[in-house]
Amino acid sequence: MMDVIIARDKTIVKHLAVSLLLAVFCSCACCTDGSKGKLTAEMAFEGVSNYCHSAYDWSIAEENPSIMGLEMGEETDSTYQVVFRSYTGALVNFYVDKKSGTTRIEEYVPMLDIREETGTIDIHDYLGKEN
Predict the structure, then answer these.
(1) How far apart, in whole angstroms, are the C-alpha atoms of residue 16 and residue 61?
(2) Which of 10, 47, 115, 121 fits 126 for a cystine, CB–CB 3.0-4.6 Å?
Protein backbone atom coordinates (compact mmCIF):
# COMPACT_ATOMS: atom_id res chain seq x y z
CA MET A 1 0.00 0.00 0.00
CA MET A 2 2.83 2.38 0.84
CA ASP A 3 4.47 1.70 -2.55
CA VAL A 4 1.27 2.74 -4.34
CA ILE A 5 1.09 6.03 -2.43
CA ILE A 6 4.77 6.84 -3.14
CA ALA A 7 4.37 5.99 -6.84
CA ARG A 8 1.24 8.17 -7.05
CA ASP A 9 3.05 11.07 -5.30
CA LYS A 10 5.97 10.79 -7.74
CA THR A 11 3.55 10.90 -10.67
CA ILE A 12 1.89 14.01 -9.25
CA VAL A 13 5.30 15.67 -8.77
CA LYS A 14 6.26 14.83 -12.38
CA HIS A 15 3.00 16.32 -13.68
CA LEU A 16 3.50 19.45 -11.62
CA ALA A 17 7.08 19.82 -12.89
CA VAL A 18 6.01 19.41 -16.52
CA SER A 19 3.15 21.88 -16.03
CA LEU A 20 5.52 24.41 -14.48
CA LEU A 21 7.98 24.05 -17.36
CA LEU A 22 5.21 24.52 -19.91
CA ALA A 23 4.02 27.63 -18.10
CA VAL A 24 7.55 29.07 -18.13
CA PHE A 25 8.05 28.33 -21.83
CA CYS A 26 4.70 29.85 -22.74
CA SER A 27 5.38 33.03 -20.79
CA CYS A 28 8.83 33.37 -22.36
CA ALA A 29 7.42 32.88 -25.84
CA CYS A 30 4.99 35.72 -25.20
CA CYS A 31 7.83 38.10 -24.37
CA THR A 32 9.83 37.79 -27.57
CA ASP A 33 10.35 40.68 -29.99
CA GLY A 34 7.34 39.57 -32.01
CA SER A 35 5.03 40.47 -29.13
CA LYS A 36 6.01 44.13 -29.19
CA GLY A 37 3.35 44.60 -31.79
CA LYS A 38 3.39 46.06 -35.24
CA LEU A 39 4.92 49.50 -35.43
CA THR A 40 2.97 52.38 -36.91
CA ALA A 41 4.46 55.09 -39.11
CA GLU A 42 4.06 57.53 -36.21
CA MET A 43 6.00 55.23 -33.89
CA ALA A 44 8.80 54.85 -36.45
CA PHE A 45 9.01 58.63 -36.87
CA GLU A 46 8.98 59.23 -33.10
CA GLY A 47 11.71 56.66 -32.47
CA VAL A 48 13.96 58.00 -35.23
CA SER A 49 13.37 61.57 -34.04
CA ASN A 50 14.36 60.64 -30.50
CA TYR A 51 17.42 58.80 -31.78
CA CYS A 52 18.50 61.73 -33.96
CA HIS A 53 18.06 64.23 -31.14
CA SER A 54 20.30 62.12 -28.93
CA ALA A 55 22.90 61.24 -31.59
CA TYR A 56 23.29 64.50 -33.53
CA ASP A 57 24.01 68.08 -32.49
CA TRP A 58 20.86 70.11 -33.15
CA SER A 59 22.23 73.38 -31.71
CA ILE A 60 23.03 74.70 -35.20
CA ALA A 61 19.37 74.29 -36.12
CA GLU A 62 18.22 76.54 -33.27
CA GLU A 63 18.97 79.68 -35.30
CA ASN A 64 17.86 78.17 -38.62
CA PRO A 65 15.35 75.33 -38.04
CA SER A 66 14.98 74.62 -41.75
CA ILE A 67 18.63 73.57 -42.05
CA MET A 68 18.01 70.18 -40.38
CA GLY A 69 14.99 67.98 -40.21
CA LEU A 70 13.17 64.68 -40.44
CA GLU A 71 10.60 63.46 -42.90
CA MET A 72 8.89 60.23 -43.78
CA GLY A 73 10.22 58.47 -46.84
CA GLU A 74 8.87 55.52 -48.75
CA GLU A 75 6.85 52.78 -47.09
CA THR A 76 6.95 49.15 -48.18
CA ASP A 77 5.06 46.12 -46.90
CA SER A 78 7.81 45.47 -44.36
CA THR A 79 9.55 48.81 -43.64
CA TYR A 80 9.10 52.50 -42.98
CA GLN A 81 11.76 54.87 -44.21
CA VAL A 82 12.51 57.98 -42.17
CA VAL A 83 15.03 60.46 -43.58
CA PHE A 84 17.18 62.80 -41.47
CA ARG A 85 18.66 65.76 -43.34
CA SER A 86 21.78 67.19 -41.70
CA TYR A 87 22.97 70.78 -41.96
CA THR A 88 25.97 69.37 -43.90
CA GLY A 89 23.69 68.16 -46.68
CA ALA A 90 24.10 64.51 -45.76
CA LEU A 91 21.01 62.33 -45.65
CA VAL A 92 20.64 59.54 -43.11
CA ASN A 93 18.06 56.95 -44.10
CA PHE A 94 16.47 54.87 -41.37
CA TYR A 95 14.73 51.70 -42.55
CA VAL A 96 12.46 50.56 -39.69
CA ASP A 97 11.23 46.96 -39.84
CA LYS A 98 7.50 47.08 -39.07
CA LYS A 99 7.45 43.81 -37.11
CA SER A 100 10.73 43.69 -35.19
CA GLY A 101 11.71 47.36 -34.85
CA THR A 102 15.22 46.58 -36.10
CA THR A 103 16.33 49.72 -37.89
CA ARG A 104 19.04 49.76 -40.54
CA ILE A 105 20.88 53.08 -40.87
CA GLU A 106 22.36 54.23 -44.17
CA GLU A 107 24.17 57.55 -44.69
CA TYR A 108 24.24 59.22 -48.09
CA VAL A 109 26.35 62.23 -49.07
CA PRO A 110 24.86 63.53 -52.34
CA MET A 111 27.74 65.92 -53.15
CA LEU A 112 30.21 63.02 -53.13
CA ASP A 113 27.75 60.31 -54.17
CA ILE A 114 28.83 58.19 -51.20
CA ARG A 115 26.38 55.73 -49.66
CA GLU A 116 27.37 53.74 -46.57
CA GLU A 117 25.56 51.52 -44.07
CA THR A 118 26.46 52.66 -40.58
CA GLY A 119 24.72 50.14 -38.33
CA THR A 120 21.43 49.14 -36.78
CA ILE A 121 19.38 50.09 -33.75
CA ASP A 122 16.24 48.72 -32.11
CA ILE A 123 13.69 51.49 -32.55
CA HIS A 124 11.84 50.29 -29.42
CA ASP A 125 14.80 51.60 -27.38
CA TYR A 126 13.90 55.14 -28.52
CA LEU A 127 10.13 55.12 -28.19
CA GLY A 128 8.60 57.14 -25.37
CA LYS A 129 11.79 59.10 -24.68
CA GLU A 130 11.90 62.87 -24.51
CA ASN A 131 13.89 64.71 -27.18
Answers:
(1) 62
(2) 47
> Does residue 48 form part of some domain?
yes
Judge if 11 and 57 occupy the same domain. no
| Dihedral angle computed from the Cα positions of residues 6, 8, 13 and 15, in that order, rounded to the nearest 10 degrees | 160
- The answer as to whether 131 is a domain residue is no
In total, the chain counts a number of residues equal to 131
Determine which helix (DSSP H) or strand (DSSP E) holds 102, and give its type and residue range: strand 102-109
Contacts of 6 (CB under 8 A, 6+ apart): none
Q: Tell me the per-residue pLDDT of 45-94, one tens digit each, with 9 for 90 and over.
A: 999 999 999 999 888 888 888 899 999 999 999 999 999 999 989 999 99
Tell me the C-alpha distance between 13 and 19, whole Å: 10
Instruction: Please state, in angstroms and as integers, the Cα–Cα distance from residue 44 to each residue in 15, 20, 62, 94, 129, following that order.
Output: 45, 38, 24, 9, 13
Do both 51 and 114 map to the same domain? yes
19: pLDDT strictly greater than 50: no
Distance (Å, rounded) from C-alpha 1 to C-alpha 33? Answer: 52
